[in-house]
Write a structure and sequence with these properties.
heterodimer; A: 319 residues; mainly alpha; MetI-like fold; 1% strand; flat; B: 285 residues
Chain lengths: 319, 285
C-alpha cells in the first residue's frame, strides 16, 4: 500500500499533469486517507473555531477603525502607518521587546537545554528533586514575590539587605528607576524560564534510543560533549524546534511580568512592551483595529525569527 | 540507566561541578518559593516589620485559618468553586491529550494531501498573541451558545495548539519500522496510535498533561462566565483576598501557597511515572 502511494507521489512530482488529473489524483489520495482526516477532525474543527477564525478576524480588523460599539470602518494601511510614524510609545515598546527577546530568548533556550541535559543523567531521585525545584517557579506562578523583594522603600528585602551591608545609604527605587527596570524584568523572566521548553527537552531526552549512546561509546566517543554533539543533538531535531518556537512565543510576548512588577504604565514606559501596548489599546482604549494591527506586526516579527531559527536548526532535523 | 549499558564515562571533576552548579541554581530558583511559604506563615505584625526579616519568628497558621473563615462567608458555598475547578481541570486535560494525540499521529507518521499546511497553521498560530482575539473568540462562543456554561472552559481545550506540536515532534522520532511491523500484523491506524505510539511517547504526553493541568487549574472565569456558581477557585480566591487589599495580605499568601499544592503534587506524580519508558523497546526485541 505504502509503495503504491509513494509511486503516485513521485508521479506527481516528475510528470507535468494537467490540473484535472492532479485534482483527481489528490482526491483519490484523500479518499485513501479517510482515517487520517477523521482523526484530525475533532482538533481541526475547534482549532478553526477558536483559533483560525479569531486570528483571521484580527488580521481583517487591523485594516479598520473599530471601537467595538460601532461597525468597523475600512481605513487601509492607516493603522500600520500610525504605528511607525506617529506612535512614539509603540517605538519604545518595540525597542524594549526586541532587547528583551534578544537577551532572554537565547539565554533561556540554552538554560533549558543545558539543565535538561544535566538533569537527565542524574540518578532518578536527584533528577526528580531538581526537576521539581527548577520547574516550581513556573508551576507556582508567583513572580509577584519579586515585587516585595525589589520593593522601593526600606521594607524591600534587597534594599534592607544592601543597606545593612552598607552598600547603599538610602533605598533604591528598583522598580521606578529607568536604569534598572527593564533589567529586573529580564532577571525575573530568566528566573521563570525553565518552563515549557525545559520540561519538553527532558521528555525528549528520555525518548532517545539508549542503544545509540552505547554504540557511540564503543565507536570511540570520548566525553559527554562529543556524545552531546554526535549522538544526542542529531536525535533531538524535532524537540529543538519545538523549544525554539515556544521560546520565541514567550520571549516576544512578554508583558505580564512587566506590568505585575513595574505597574502599568511603567515610569517613562521603560518597561513597556508590544504585548502591553496591545492590551492598552485593545482593553483600555477600545481601539481594537489599531490593537489588531500591532498584533499583526508582532506576529510578523515572530514568524521572521522562526524562519531564521529554522535555518539554524536545519542541520539537526531530518526532514 | 541502571542497566549494564555501556556509556561514555563522565569525569569526576565534571560530576562534582555539575552538582555544584545545579545546587547553586536550585538555591536561586527556590528562594522566592520559600519566601512565599514563609510569608504565609508570618503573623500579621511581622508581615510589615522593619527591618524586614526573611524568616518568621512566630510561625502561625493564622493566615490559613482566616482564609478558611473568609471562604465560609462567600455567597456561593465555597465547595462549589473547588468542584468547578477540579471538574474543568480533569475534563480539560483529558480532552486536550486525546484530541492532540489523534491530530498529531497522522501529521507525524502518515502522508496525505494538506498535511504540511495543517501543521504549519498549528505552529504559526502559536506565534499569534492572544491579546486581540478575545472579542472574535467571544463572538464564536456566543454563536455556539456556550457563553456562561462549563463548555466555555473545556471546549477550547480540544484545540489547544501546543499539544499537537509537542506530540507530533515526539511521534516523528518513533522508528517507522515499528509502525510498519504493527501494520503488517494487521493493526489499523487507530490501534497503532493507542497501543504502540502513545505508550512509547509516555514522557511527552505526561509532560503535556502537566502543562494542561497547570493551565486549567489556574484558569480564571475570564469574560466568558458571569454566573457566580460557574466560577473557579482562582477567581473566587482573588475576589476575597483583593476585597481587603493590604489587610488581607497574609491571606493572599496563604491562598497562593494552597493553590500551588495540587499542581505540584500532580507534577511529582507525572514526573515519577515518566522515568525511562523504553521508547525503542519495540524494535530492539
Amino acid at each position: 500500500m505504502a509503495t503504491s502511494k509513494q509511486r503516485e507521489v513521485e508521479l506527481l512530482k516528475k510528470k507535468k499533469l494537467s490540473f484535472s488529473e492532479k485534482a483527481a489524483l489528490t482526491w483519490r489520495q484523500m479518499k485513501e486517507n479517510k482515517i487520517n482526516y477523521l482523526m484530525i477532525l475533532p482538533f481541526m474543527v475547534f482549532f478553526t473555531l477558536f483559533t483560525i477564525i479569531p486570528i483571521a478576524a484580527s488580521v481583517v480588523l487591523s485594516f479598520t477603525r473599530y471601537d467595538i460599539l460601532n461597525t468597523p470602518v475600512f481605513i487601509g494601511w492607516d493603522n500600520y502607518l500610525r504605528m511607525f510614524l506617529e506612535d512614539s510609545v509603540f517605538l519604545i515598546a518595540l525597542k524594549n521587546t526586541l532587547k528583551f527577546a534578544i537577551i532572554t530568548g537565547p539565554v533561556s533556550y540554552l538554560l533549558c537545554f543545558i539543565f535538561a541535559w544535566f538533569i537527565n543523567d542524574l540518578p532518578s531521585i536527584a533528577r526528580a528533586f531538581f526537576t521539581v525545584v527548577f520547574y516550581a517557579p513556573t508551576l507556582a506562578n508567583i513572580y509577584f514575590i519579586f515585587q516585595y523583594l525589589f520593593s522601593s522603600d526600606m521594607y524591600g528585602l534587597i534594599n534592607s539587605v544592601l543597606m545593612n551591608m552598607g552598600v547603599l545609604d538610602e533605598p533604591v527605587a528598583w522598580l521606578k528607576d529607568t536604569k534598572y527596570m527593564l533589567n529586573i524584568v529580564i532577571i525575573v523572566q530568566l528566573w521563570c524560564s525553565l518552563g515549557t521548553s525545559f520540561l519538553s527537552f527532558i521528555a525528549g531526552l528520555q525518548n532517545l534510543d539508549p542503544s545509540l549512546a552505547e554504540a557511540g561509546a564503543i565507536d570511540g566517543v570520548r566525553n559527554r560533549f562529543q556524545e552531546l554533539f554526535y549522538i544526542t543533538l542529531p536525535q533531538m531535531g524535532g524537540m529543538l524546534m519545538f523549544g525554539a518556537v515556544m521560546q520565541i512565543a514567550s520571549s516576544f510576548a512578554v508583558g505580564g511580568i512587566s506590568s505585575a512588577l513595574l505597574g502599568f504604565p511603567s515610569v517613562d514606559y521603560a518597561g513597556h512592551t508590544i504585548t502591553l501596548h496591545i492590551s492598552d489599546f485593545g482593553h483600555t482604549r477600545f481601539e481594537l483595529g489599531y490593537a489588531s494591527a500591532i498584533a499583526v506586526v508582532l506576529f510578523a516579527l515572530m514568524i521572521v525569527t522562526k524562519v531564521l531559527i529554522n535555518k539554524l536548526l536545519a542541520r539537526f532535523s531530518h526532514d | 540507566m541502571s542497566t549494564k549499558l555501556r556509556r561514555t564515562k563522565a569525569s569526576v571533576v565534571g560530576d562534582v561541578s555539575t552538582y555544584l552548579l545545579l545546587a547553586l541554581y536550585a538555591a536561586f530558583m527556590s528562594l522566592p518559593l520559600i519566601y512565599a511559604i514563609v510569608q504565609s506563615l508570618k503573623p500579621y505584625n511581622e508581615l510589615f516589620l522593619f527591618p524586614p526579616r526573611f524568616f518568621t519568628r512566630n510561625p502561625t497558621l493564622m493566615n490559613f485559618r482566616k482564609l478558611f473563615d473568609l471562604t465560609s462567608t462567600s455567597w456561593v458555598p465555597f465547595s462549589r468553586y473547588v468542584f468547578n475547578t477540579v471538574l474543568n481541570t480533569i475534563l480539560g486535560t483529558v480532552v486536550h491529550i486525546i484530541s492532540a494525540a489523534m491530530c498529531a499521529y497522522p501529521l507525524a507518521k502518515n502522508k496525505f494531501p494538506g498535511k504540511k499546511t495543517m501543521f504549519n497553521l498549528v505552529v504559526w498560530s502559536l506565534l499569534f498573541t492572544g491579546g486581540v482575539t478575545e472579542i472574535p473568540v467571544y463572538l464564536v462562543m456566543s454563536y455556539l451558545g456556550i457563553v456562561d456554561t462549563y463548555f466555555a472552559y473545556w471546549l477550547p481545550e480540544i484545540a489547544a495548539t501546543m499539544g499537537v506540536f509537542l506530540l507530533k515532534q515526539n511521534m516523528a522520532e518513533i522508528p517507522d519500522a515499528m509502525i510498519e511491523a504493527a501494520r503488517i500484523d494487521g493493526a489499523g491506524d487507530w490501534k497503532i496510535l493507542w497501543s504502540i505510539v502513545m505508550p512509547s511517547i509516555k514522557p511527552a504526553w505526561l509532560t503535556l498533561a502537566i502543562f494542561s493541568f497547570q493551565r486549567n487549574w489556574n484558569a480564571t472565569a475570564g469574560s466568558y462566565i458571569y454566573t457566580e456558581t460557574l466560577k473557579t477557585l482562582p477567581t473566587a480566591l482573588s475576589q476575597i483576598t483583593a476585597a481587603g487589599s493590604v489587610a488581607r495580605a497574609g491571606e493572599a499568601y496563604a491562598a497562593s501557597v494552597l493553590m500551588m499544592i495540587p499542581p505540584i503534587i500532580f507534577f511529582i506524580f507525572a514526573q515519577s511515572s515518566t522515568v525511562k519508558t523504553m521508547a525503542h523497546a519495540g524494535i530492539k526485541g
